[in-house]
Each structure stands twice: as structure tokens, then as C-alpha cells.
């Protein structure tokens, strides 16, 4: 059965983030995870005790904050990682290696992007990758969110607490760059926070929807979609918990025959 719906693959949204790397005045996990001996010790500690750095997220701190005092709700998600590493690479992504000095990362992503993109089949050959057009920063609101987040990082790094933990500003200093330079750096270095969703939106078919409120594909019998692609828009924070909630709801609908 074929069902034509141009909304399939559309409505794609994601969180786009960036990291700023700092040299630290105190030891960080670079010293632990920067050598094979340290990695093996951390691995054994995790296997035997379920403890140590490998038992935690790479981003051990963070939060949802307002980038400015006049906002009614948080608009920026912050990330803190007690190690530093470069994500610059060409072609296949290599295994990440910590920098050979004490360092840490501060990063952010705007919470509520308004840009939408598409993901489509690019070839009848299933081994070929799909065509992904994220259309990041496609609206003025998204550009403003990036600048607000970068300026917030710039203010944080100038607080007495962080100034005492760093040897100076990062190589790309968000407190010193112009708006144009900040935006150019963000376009060059930013990357997905791995929250893609919305390409099979839950909405009426006439409003760009692919599935209905029971996750059934419009116009197709016996087919549902149960993952983050059905989100009407990207959630303001991480997508894992909402996806688990969606799966729980879908299981109930399926068992109930609805």
C-alpha cells in the first residue's frame, strides 16, 4: 500500500550546541582518562564497584537557565564536563581523547529552536545514507538564541569562582568576540546534541501531521510510529524521558486496541 504524505520526513528539529574548552588550575578527568593505565583502572572500578568516572555521564553538571533577566522561563541548557577534548575531525569520527593537560568544558544549546528541516530517502539502495537537511539557524529567533547563550557563557567564565579555576579564557573567547564572530564560530564548530525529532509529527493530516493522537499513521491500517519523530516539536530539554513516556503510552494504546 502506498500513501502519499509530503509531511513524512518534514518538521525535523534538533538541539544544536557548542563547547568552549578551558585549561584548569585543578586536576580534572583528563589526568585519569588520558592514559591507558587510567582508562583501565576506571574500567575495572566500574566493572567491580559500579563507581568512578565511567559510572557517570560525560556531562556531570548542567541545568536549564534563563540567558537574560527579562525572560519568563529558561531558554538555554548548560553543560559542564570535567574533562576537555577536541571534536574537530575530518571523515570518520575517531575515539575521543582528553587533552594532555587539566581542562574542562562549558557548553550550551538553545532550548526551543524554531527552525525545521527534512530527512528523506536519497536512494533505493538501503546502504546509502539518507538526505538530511537540518536547516539549523534558519530563523532570526534561533540566531538570537545562539548569541544569548554564548554571551551567558562569557559572563559565567568571568565570575570569581570560574576565574579561580581557569588559566584564562578559552581559545575562542565568547566574552571578547563580536556578534558576527560569535555566530561565525557557532556555525563552524557547533554540532547536534543528538535530539532529532519531529519528522513524523503527531498532528491532523491537514496540518502537516503523519500520525494521529494514537500514533497511527494517517491513511495506513495497522501501522504506528513510536519514537521521538512523532513529537509535534522538539522538547525544551533532553528527549530521552519524553520518548520513554511516549513508549509507555503507546504500549497502553496497543494493548487496549485503540
Uncertain residue ranges = none
Q: How much is the average pLDDT?
A: 93
Gross morphology: globular
Helix content bin: 25-40%
Q: Cα distance, first to last residue? A: 22 Å
**Beta fraction of the residues?**
5-15%
Count the strands?
A: 7
Q: How many domains is the backbone divided into?
A: 2
User: What's the gyration radius in Å?
Assistant: 21 Å
CATH homologous superfamily classification of the largest domain:
Glucose Oxidase, domain 3
What does this structure look like?
- The chain has about 260 residues and is α+β, with helices and mostly antiparallel strands.
- The chain folds into 2 domains: about 15-115 and about 135-190, Glucose Oxidase, domain 3 (2-Layer Sandwich), CATH 3.30.560; about 205-255, no CATH class.
- About 25% of the residues lie in helices and about 15% in strands.
- It has 6 helices and 7 strands, in the order βααβββββαααβα.
- It has helices at about 30-35, 35-50, 140-155, 160-165, 180-190, 240-255, and strands spanning about 15-25, 60-65, 75-80, 105-110, 120, 130-135, 190.
- The strands form 2 sheets. The protein has a 5-stranded antiparallel sheet with strand order 2-3-4-1-7.
- Helix 3 crosses helix 5.
- The protein starts with 15 loop residues before the first strand and ends with a helix.
Q: Tags for this entry?
A:
6 helices; five-stranded antiparallel beta sheet; 258 residues; globular; alpha+beta; Glucose Oxidase, domain 3
Amino acid at each position: 500500500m502506498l500513501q502519499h504524505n509530503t509531511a513524512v520526513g518534514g518538521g525535523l528539529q534538533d538541539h544544536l550546541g557548542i563547547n568552549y574548552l578551558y585549561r584548569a588550575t585543578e586536576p580534572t578527568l583528563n589526568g585519569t582518562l588520558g592514559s591507558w593505565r587510567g582508562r583501565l583502572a576506571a574500567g575495572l572500578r566500574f566493572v567491580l564497584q559500579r563507581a568512578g568516572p565511567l559510572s557517570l555521564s560525560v556531562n556531570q553538571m548542567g541545568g536549564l537557565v534563563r540567558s537574560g533577566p527579562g525572560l519568563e522561563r529558561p531558554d538555554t541548557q548548560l553543560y559542564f564536563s570535567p574533562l576537555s577534548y577536541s571534536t574537530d575531525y575530518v571523515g570518520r569520527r575517531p575515539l575521543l581523547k582528553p587533552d594532555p593537560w587539566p581542562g574542562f568544558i562549558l557548553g550550551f544549546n538553545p532550548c526551543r529552536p524554531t527552525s525545521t528541516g527534512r530527512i528523506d530517502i536519497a536512494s533505493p539502495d538501503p546502504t546509502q545514507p539518507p538526505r538530511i537537511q537540518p536547516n539549523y539557524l534558519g530563523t532570526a529567533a534561533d540566531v538570537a538564541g545562539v548569541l544569548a547563550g554564548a554571551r551567558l557563557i562569557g559572563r559565567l567564565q568571568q565570575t570569581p569562582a570560574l576565574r579561580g579555576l581557569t588559566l584564562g579564557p578559552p581559545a575562542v573567547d565568547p566574552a571578547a568576540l563580536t556578534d558576527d564572530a560569535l555566530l561565525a564560530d557557532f556555525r563552524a564548530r557547533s554540532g547536534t546534541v543528538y535530539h532529532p525529532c519531529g519528522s513524523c509529527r503527531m498532528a491532523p493530516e491537514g496540518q502537516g501531521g503523519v500520525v494521529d493522537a494514537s500514533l497511527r499513521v494517517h491513511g495506513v491500517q495497522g501501522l504506528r510510529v513510536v519514537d521521538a519523530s512523532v513529537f509535534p516539536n522538539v522538547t525544551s530539554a533532553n528527549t530521552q524521558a519524553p520518548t520513554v513516556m511516549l513508549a509507555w503510552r503507546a504500549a497502553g494504546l496497543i494493548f487496549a486496541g485503540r
